[in-house]
Request: fold
Amino acid sequence: MTLKYPARTSLKSPLTSRRGFLICGLAGVVGAVWIDGLVAATPGDAQPLEVNIEQFSADGKSLGFVKMPKVAKTAAQWRSQLSALAYQVTREEGTELPYSGEYASNHADGLYHCICCDTVLFDSKTKYESGTGWPSFWQAISAANVVKSSDSSFGMQRDAISCRRCDAHLGHVFDDGPRPTGLRYCMNSVSLHFVRRG
Reply:
């Protein structure tokens, strides 16, 4: 007795055909670009669309709190706005070399703004010489304008400081600063933009 088997059907996957391979490849590239823009524009989960920021006059006087839209841009948009080093530090949490930044030895009177979104972050009245090679402050101009988060990179436990409005990485804060706070906000010059007091 001879057994008859049904005709063999093709088990060829659409992915193994040339057309399927090209379509999937193109879809992958488009998806990667879309995801890159989405992740850069909305970092983290459930980010607020608005934040309360304390605004300051050109002479450093508080103008009160204002609800402002969170600044969110794609990686490409940030790269077109910032220098390569500023992008590495603010958007990728890098660190400039000590004594290399333009504000490490700056003694002029004024306010330090975020290089990414222009939010006022520090007042020169709280700047001091820490001997570290980075501009250091014993307090932020307003606790509302910065965010502290845990940073365990490089096998160390530190507190990272970022801009509340645009999430730009600014530097770290340590508890070895002078009075009255005992804090040292050790910032990257390239994360800041200095404006002389008006």
The two ends are 103 Å apart (CA to CA). The chain has a mean pLDDT of 84. Residues 40 and 74 are 5 Å apart (CA to CA). The helical segments are 18-41, 75-81, 84-92.
